[in-house]
From TrEMBL:
Residues 17-104 form the Helicase/UvrB N-terminal domain. It comes from the Bacteria. This is DEAD/DEAH box helicase family protein. Coiled coil: none annotated. One of its GO terms (molecular function) is hydrolase activity. InterPro entries: Helicase/UvrB_N, P-loop_NTPase. It holds the Pfam family ResIII. It comes from Aneurinibacillus thermoaerophilus. The lineage of its organism: Bacteria, Bacillati, Bacillota, Bacilli, Bacillales.
Amino acid sequence: MDNYFKETNAFIQGNTSLRAPQRKAHERLKQSFIDNLSTHKIITLPTGVGKTGLIAIAPFEISDGRVLVITPSLVIREGISDAFDTRTSFNFWTERNVILDDNKLPRVYRYAGFNSSGARKRVMRYLEEADDVNYFV
């Protein structure tokens, strides 16, 4: 789905399961894209207010395509991909009532690299053909 993030009904504003800084940052990010689509956006949040959650909701109502999440370490990547794991009911979108229909949860691909040329070819082919994947972590 090319416009998944714009077509999927995500409950963000008014969702008290989300933290207030997450809702406010999403609203400001959305407004920033309305005001000026071509500038870079930077969001800073203090420790403990839900950066992973903001990453999870940021593309909704904004992104026209897939999202690439780049992390500074393997530990953070594992934490984010665990929160984004839609195979469990403990994923962020279900736990925080952002996506109320389990059939509408985003498709997430956890990129773990490759260690052989055969694996590299499989991964690259998958990435090229992954039209139904919404997040790459």
